[in-house]
Specification:
The complex is a heterodimer of chains A (313) and B (295). Chain A has 313 residues and is an all-alpha fold. Chain A folds into 2 domains: 54 residues, no CATH class; 217 residues, Orthogonal Bundle (MetI-like fold). Chain A is built from 14 helices and no strands. In chain A, helix 8 crosses helix 11 and helix 9 runs antiparallel to helix 10. Chain B has 295 residues and is an all-alpha fold. Chain B has one domain: Orthogonal Bundle (MetI-like fold), CATH 1.10.3720. Chain B is built from 12 helices and no strands. In chain B, helix 4 runs antiparallel to helix 9, helix 8 crosses helix 9 and helix 9 packs antiparallel against helix 11. Chain B is elongated. Chain B starts with 10 loop residues before the first helix and ends with a helix. The chains are: A mainly alpha (313), B mainly alpha (295). The interface between A and B is large, with 46 and 45 residues. Chain B: Belongs to the binding-protein-dependent transport system permease family. Chain B: This is Peptide/nickel transport system permease protein. Chain B: Its main location: membrane.
Amino acid sequence: MFGYILRRLLATIPVLLIVSVFVFLLLRLTPGDPAAILAGDAATPAQLERIRDSLGLNDPLHVQFLTWFGQMLQGDFGTSLISNTDVLDMVSDRLGPTVNIAVMTIIISVLLAVPMGVIAAWRHRSWIDFAVMSFSVLGFSVPVFVIGYILIQIFAIELRWVPVQGYKSPADGLGAFFSRAVLPSLTLATIYVALIARMTRASMLEVLGEDYIRTARAKGVRENVVLFRHALRNAAVPILTIIGTGFALLISGVVVTESVFNIPGIGRLTVDAILARDYPVIQAMILLTAGIYVMVNLLVDLSYSLFDPRIRY
Amino acid sequence: MADIPTSRPSAFHVLTGIFALPKGARLGAGPAIAALVLAIIVMASVCAPLYVPHDPLSMDAMSRLKPPSGEFWLGTDPFGRDIFSRVMTGGRVSLLIGVGAAVVSVAIGLAIGLVAGFFRTADGIIMRIMDSLMAIPAILLAIALVALNGPSLGSVIIAITIPEVPRVVRLVRSVVLTAREEPYVEAAIALGSSMPKILIQHLLPNTLAPLIVQGTYICASAILIEAILSFLGAGVSTEIPTWGNIMAEGRTYFQLKPGLIFWPGILLSLCILCINLLGDTARDLLDPRMKKREG
């Protein structure tokens, strides 16, 4: 087990290394000059040159990369070109809202999607199966922000149950937090539910045709025990996998949803940084999200053995 | 150079053969309706300049944010432009981006995938690079690419293409890995066929069917990503009406004029829904096992 974890962790090093080379080249080889952003419009060529020098932009490319990479390994992600604050501080300030909303989304998604998929497979080809499948095809087809605006229109503007936009941390009161977090979480959950419900249904359909399910039913095991204990556990691995790979969708969704609901999280931070060409922030954020994605998928792979004792590492 | 004598069927026969219905199978009405709806949306978008009642770009300060009327069927936007004309015209660029991104990413992914699947030495390096690209969230990568390369049509297509390429590569590679063990490929290698000939004549046809399915999904997701990019302010230049741009402008006026988001949103969702349904149909027809290869 530990050997496996170690090997997997070592395997993430080349991935993250390539990501960082890629991000570095992406930002350095495309038009756009960080020094010009920093200097403003009124800068003279001499001032510009001084700033370029101090940022190390006149060094050869590989020297720039190694300097940047070395600093990063020491936990120094640089300072923002726009706000002149430490990138790591900026990110940790904005992490809370995103993590809270993401966790809520995952909980909502799994609680909704798994039973949906199980019931759809159980009542295969019934109206309920048709409804679940329609929802999951539809969930993939509507842009995240359109879902967000539909929910705002219904629940915030027409019914006035919750505020339109904004964010309050759970520390300011759970009621205030939930009333503002529920719409963004539901918005984000739509596509995730569609994905997980679809995979649960497919995986369950396969398992429900197995002999041991027939045996369990024949010996009189109650149907919900058959479904949730015998079938779902055996169907769990593909479902877990899709929760892991779907995490990329969640990250993309966070970026959009935070803009719709005006949430000060890392998604907004990244978009603002990209649009303002705040290079250090962009580099840090892309690496961070790539790292999170890789780690989540490692955790997912490790969790297989919890559900399926045949899998050993 | 000796070649294996083959009577190759034409590309058309390969494709019609691939998608032929199994005996006794019925498709049902769903795919037919999806194809019809999609055809109507595509025709309506492509022909939009012929029939829309107003110039989608002409602004009129006197008729800002008008409600729907006989003159302006869906009302006007904050600049006094006709929403109906804009939405119908907007579909052209959105669909073009969808098709463009699908074609480009399939072409690039096919080339890289063939190489990765056939040349074992290149495989390791190529796949590590592809894994790394897949670890970067598609939307972030795409916004960064547009923000850095400028808001042109080409740069948006490229930005949507790059994150999609690794998925195509993995698919093509997995098909090639299975196909290269087939006796006819081993025979071709043993007989000394040239490398390009083996790749193009023997391996490429195996990848066509799964690629068509993958291409439809990429097309659908590209239309979605275009909308998201425009929405975040990193799409095609705002002077060009696209579904994404119209919705992006609707953000500020959402409470006054929800139609600015909902009308393009409905058309776009309908369009993606139909493309996805057709993709699912094609996949089911092809081979139920294909789903497993995608991972």
